[in-house]
Specification:
alpha/beta; L-arginine/glycine Amidinotransferase, Chain A; about 20% helix; binds citrulline; DDAH-like
């Protein structure tokens, strides 16, 4: 059977809206260009579809500038989905907008009820375990609530700390196959990936760490030639996506979809 951490029947994405220029960002490096962002989003969705998956594309939510970063609203596993509780106040309402779509796909749908917080960008499912990084958006109480649900579903959860100044755990790492993680040296130095094969981002290309393995391809941001070469050399089928505008909002490849396996 194909691995549910790398092979998916479906993905869910949401279009960016005009309000995306007001999205959260750690540092103001200019406003994203909506037209270019939509073109990149089209290319991202087309690439997911080329692998044979069904991609559900939701309408933009103008009241929520960051709503295109759907990954933060839920964790999807073979047993069911868990609706998250974002640590950013302005993003909390996105979860209720995602819930009906996932309710139509999963029989078992759970909620992080709070008071803790947790965002999907801090969670990496490797197939054998669920790694969760505490961060400015994900706290110990949020992780504890997720752990109680995953105990029921039989998934071990390992908790760690996202490095200071890094938005999400997966800002700095990606799963390339069930045994292999792409990581910055900074994150890997914590020892959190002991037991996996780790490929380090070449120096100066750390911003390419947020990639996704989706069926037989790896989507990564364009503009990081040494990383792309390294992955190709390792035998991955690399697809480059323009991430210029999402990067201005601290977003990357994983943030733009929820990836799931349903019959
Ligand atoms: C935020 O700060 O929440 C958004 N501007 C970026 C979210 C990126 N999401 C992700 O890494 N999973």
């Amino acid at each position: 059977m194909s691995n549910p951490a790398t092979h998916f029947t479906h993905a869910v994405s949401r279009r960016p809206g005009a309000s995306v220029t007001g999205g959260l960002r750690a540092e103001d490096r200019g406003a994203p260009d909506l037209a270019r962002m939509l073109a990149a989003h089209d290319a991202y969705i087309a690439t997911l579809r080329e692998t044979g998956a069904e991609v559900i594309v939701l309408e933009a939510l103008e009241d929520y500038p960051d709503a295109l970063f759907v990954e933060d609203t839920a964790l999807c596993l073979p047993e069911g989905a868990v609706m998250m509780r974002p640590g950013a106040d302005s993003r909390m309402g996105e979860v209720a907008h995602m819930r009906p779509t996932l309710a139509g796909l999963f029989d078992d749908l759970r909620d992080i009820a709070g008071p803790g917080h947790i965002e999907g960008g801090d969670i990496l499912f490797t197939g054998r375990e669920v790694l969760v990084g505490r961060s400015a958006r994900t706290d110990a109480a949020g992780v504890a609530e997720l752990r109680a649900i995953l105990d029921e579903w039989g998934h071990p959860l390992r908790e760690m700390q996202t490095p200071d100044g890094v938005l999400h755990f997966k800002t700095d790492c990606s799963l390339l196959d069930p045994e292999t993680i792409l990581s910055t040296r900074l994150l890997d130095a914590s020892g959190c990936f002991d037991g996996y094969r780790v490929l380090h981002l070449p120096e100066g290309e750390e911003a390419a760490a947020n990639a996704i393995r989706f069926n037989d391809v790896v989507l990564m941001p364009d503009g990081f030639p040494r990383t792309a070469e390294m992955l190709e050399r390792e035998g991955y089928d690399v697809r480059l996506i323009d991430n210029t505008d999402c990067a201005l909002l601290d977003g990357g490849m994983s943030c733009l979809s929820l990836r799931l396996n349903v019959a």
